[in-house]
From TrEMBL, chain A:
SUPFAM superfamilies tied to this protein: CoA-dependent acyltransferases, Peripheral subunit-binding domain of 2-oxo acid dehydrogenase complex, Single hybrid motif
Keyword Transferase: yes
Classification via Pfam families: 2-oxoacid_dh, Biotin_lipoyl, E3_binding
Gene Ontology molecular functions: acetyltransferase activity; lipoic acid binding
Tagged with keyword Transferase: yes
Protein name, UniProt field: Dihydrolipoamide acetyltransferase component of pyruvate dehydrogenase complex
Taxonomic lineage of the native organism: Bacteria, Pseudomonadati, Pseudomonadota, Gammaproteobacteria, Oceanospirillales
From TrEMBL, chain B:
Source organism, top-level taxon: Bacteria
Protein name: Carrier domain-containing protein
Pfam families cross-referenced by the UniProt entry: PP-binding
Domain spans labelled Carrier: 5-80
Species this chain originates from: Saccharospirillum salsuginis
InterPro entries referenced in this protein's UniProt entry, alphabetically: ACP-like_sf, PP-bd_ACP
């Protein structure tokens, strides 16, 4: 039996509001199940569990602000889970229950189940974000009359924004994504200030000839319908992920004075949230699978980053960060490392440049790659080799396409 | 589907990708990338949506040249079956 704690949701998050429970006492859970949804400045995030067991008790009612590390539920392990202690509370009826009931026999219950009032209250709550609740109170709008556009129909502040409110400065357009730009900016500021305070960054840049990769991509896409095409960023992310396996000092976490390299490669991808801010969820195991598979996963990650539905593992597991500001027109981007990571790669736009080929001059599509890395862990020499390796991998795009069976890993394979 | 219906369908697809835009403000000659901030993933999604809902498979070489709503309408209109 163990307490399940509110997970960390990144270096810049110290609390979150629990807005939904997806399990109830008695439910059997397995690794990877989503048990709750929390709301943060980065939108709604699904909280996963990483063990098997049975939910014994939910400690925290919906709509509570919970600090990271506080117990939110009690789980019992399956192996040790003889129900000799308190039998699981009979579950109150829930209209929509996606999870199967616990497979093990129910402990004998003498009296008819009497659901305790507290959980009952939880299930009947209307899903709404704290800001939406506040706005509903401010404008006198009953939440029952509002149609929610958030995850699982949760009411977001934007759903109430059509009501005029004289006390608020008029905003150009209501946010429909559940993000809080002010809070998000504060969170980014906190993480980046900590990074600049604690991490001795060094910076390197390298120009990469992208002719082979550009030609390969054009050929690949020419014969395929739009939904099966690839973006150049997929090739770049794959090249980074494969290179990161060879440079463990770029891929991992610096915590409490020590560096722990990571076996898995989970690049955090900087995703722009259209005028709201920036989020860097992890593209899990980007070194594995075909390029088509990686493209599908990137598309899914981008969609969930913008519309809600990122998972807690994606918020915390990133082992290095990639920012590709190229299509916004910049030629190079020098990143700030996201603690506790130790490296961030930046990619600028692919642009035609004069390029020496042998002793002649040619015009080639060229991309600037930059690396900001942590001097506590690595030196510029290794950083330069890391960039050179990425450039080299991009000269052989066909070798970036890995079949899913290449180098299977035991840890955290994306389902 | 006439030109106006095509235009409306395209605006719907664009606004779905960029929910902070309102349908009225999408104009024919603004650059989808520079004025409405559609990135390469957004463009990928737009091409896929056009293929799915309008049945037109725009080759990538052509799609790269279509920068505005007006250009998309002009390109797609004669290709609708």
């Amino acid at each position: 039996m163990s307490d399940f704690l509110m997970p960390s949701l990144g270096a810049d998050m110290d609390e979150a509001t629990l807005v939904e429970w997806d399990v109830k006492p008695g439910d059997r859970i397995k690794k990877g199940d989503v048990i709750a949804v929390v709301e943060t400045a980065k939108g709604a995030i699904e909280v996963e569990v990483f063990e098997e067991g049975v939910v014994e008790e939910l400690y925290v009612p919906v709509d509570t602000v919970v600090p990271v590390g506080q117990p939110i539920a009690r789980l019992s392990g399956v192996e040790t889970g003889a129900p000799e202690a308190a039998p699981p509370k009979p579950a109150p009826t829930v209209p929509e229950q996606p999870k199967p009931r616990a497979a093990k026999p129910e402990p004998p219950v003498k009296a008819p189940p009497t659901p305790s009032p507290e959980p009952e209250q939880i299930w009947e709550r209307i899903l709404a974000t704290p800001l939406a609740r506040k706005r509903a109170r401010d404008t006198g709008t009953p939440l029952e009359q509002v149609r929610g556009s958030g995850p699982r129909g949760a009411i977001l502040a934007g759903d109430l924004a059509s009501r005029p409110d004289v006390n608020r400065p008029a905003r150009e357009r209501p946010s429909r994504t559940g993000f809080d730009p002010g809070e998000m900016r504060k969170a980014i500021a906190a993480a980046m200030a900590r990074s600049k305070r604690e991490i001795p960054h060094y910076y390197l840049a390298e120009s990469i000839d992208m002719k082979t990769a550009t030609d390969w991509l054009s050929d690949y896409n020419a014969t395929r319908p739009p939904e099966q095409r690839l973006l150049m960023s997929v090739l770049v992310f794959r090249a980074v992920a494969l290179a990161a396996r060879e440079f463990p000092e770029m891929n991992g976490f610096h915590r409490d004075g020590y560096f722990e390299p990571s076996d898995a490669v989970h690049p955090g991808i900087a995703i722009n949230l259209r005028g709201i801010g920036l989020i860097t969820p992890a593209l899990l195991n980007a070194d594995q699978g075909s390029l088509a598979d990686l493209m599908a996963r990137l598309q899914d990650l981008t969609r969930r980053a913008r519309r809600g539905g990122l998972r807690s593992s994606e918020m915390t597991n990133a082992t290095l960060t990639i920012t590709a500001l190229g299509e916004r027109g910049v030629e190079s981007v020098y990143g700030v490392i996201y603690p506790p990571q130790v490296a961030i790669l930046g990619f600028g736009k692919v642009t035609p440049k004069p390029w020496a080929v042998g002793d002649a001059l040619a015009v080639r599509p060229v991309m600037q790659a930059t690396l900001a890395a942590d001097h506590r862990v690595s030196d510029g020499h290794r950083g330069g080799l890391f960039l050179a390796r990425i450039a080299e991998l991009l000269q052989h795009p066909d070798q970036l396409d890995r079949t899913p069976s290449v180098q299977p890993r035991q840890k955290e394979t994306t389902p | 589907m006439n030109r106006n219906e095509l235009r409306t369908a395209l605006i719907e697809a664009i606004v779905d990708i960029a929910p902070d835009l309102s349908p009225e403000e999408v104009s024919d000659d603004a650059s989808l990338r520079d004025d409405y901030d559609l990135d390469s993933m957004d463009s990928f999604n737009l091409a896929a949506e056009i293929h799915k809902s309008l049945g037109v498979n725009i080759p990538e070489a052509d799609f790269a040249k279509l920068q505005t709503l007006g250009e998309l309408v002009t390109y797609l209109e004669p290709r609708l079956t």
